[in-house]
Amino acid sequence: MTESCFMGQTPVAFPSTWLKFARSLGPGERVIDLACGAGTVARQIRASSPSLRIDGVDFANSLPRLPGVQLHPNTNLESLPFEAATFDAVVSQFGFEYADVAQASAEAARVLKPSGHLCLIIHNSSGPAIADAKRRVQRLMEVNANDGILIAMRNLALAHKDGVDASATEMSAKAAWQRLRNAREQDETTSWALSFSRELLDNWKRFEPAYLVENTGKLSAEIALYAARIEAMVLAAQDQSGMDTIADLFRDAGIEISTLSPLHYQSDPVAWHLGGQKTSLAA
């Protein structure tokens, strides 16, 4: 499990935002990190304020060990396993927006104590990180296309297995590889796919056909899964209208919104910062 937002190959982070927020909390206060993932936020706020008690929840089946953080895998943001008014602060970075935001906002407000604080960082659909993600998905689809290198390699393996003349199939595979190689842009994933498929292509006669079929199939499945993850990020990203809707949902749940503004990374808008405080009269 890795960072959830990238600019090219560089993970996007906002340490100054979390440092300021952590220092606004009192000693020993309890914080819930929604969709905590690899623990980027939990690690930063605990490093800033070691006395904070942090619970991390995530839909994933397993989570990496985070010292000083109580982890809750297999947990939906729409149905948190905590009593009302349990936490002094609710935080999330690039995770809240993947949930059903109407239900998740109500749950976040429910577990927050009166006067408790909210701080969310959410994908910005207008920024270059999402534009880069869309390009990544397109490149991955080209690798996995019906006329792409992986299908071509599988066809070569099947011809090899059947003992038929594979010269035409080999030419098709080489042409598919070259098309991918000549693509306008590459990233670390497509570059790795090119390298791996080139090795198979250059040495296919030395491999057992079953090995070629199995490994091209595995690579295809891995790329499809990765593409789905990136596409989910694209779909979860919010524009100004979407953020206004999320802010209204929190207001309806008793959160007074104090911050709704874009966050920049290297001068580009890549995220939204949504902050607020639960009113003492909220349910």
Characterize the structure shown.
Helix 1 packs across helix 2, helix 4 runs antiparallel to helix 8 and helix 5 packs antiparallel against helix 8. The chain has 283 residues and is of the alpha/beta class. The protein has a seven-stranded mixed sheet with strand order 5-4-3-6-7-9-8, sandwiched between helices. The chain is built from nine helices and nine strands. The chain has two domains: 162 residues, 3-Layer(aba) Sandwich (Rossmann fold); 105 residues, no CATH class. Strand 3, helix 2 and strand 4 form a beta-alpha-beta unit.
Shape: elongated
Total beta strands: 9
- DSSP strand content: 15-25%
CATH architecture of the largest domain: 3-Layer(aba) Sandwich
Biggest sheet overview: 7 strands, mixed
Order of helices and strands: EEHEHEEEHEHHHHHHEE
The overall pLDDT average reads 90
Unreliable spans are none
Question: Mind telling me the CATH class of the largest domain?
Answer: Alpha Beta
Radius of gyration: 23 Å
Class computed from helices, strands and strand pairing: alpha/beta
User: Order of strands side by side in the largest beta sheet?
Assistant: 5-4-3-6-7-9-8
Query: CATH fold name of the largest domain, please?
Result: Rossmann fold
Task: Work out the helicity level.
Answer: 40-55%
Say which CATH homologous superfamily of the largest domain is assigned: Vaccinia Virus protein VP39
- The tally of domains stands at 2
- Give the distance, in angstroms, between the N- and C-terminal Cα atoms: 35 Å
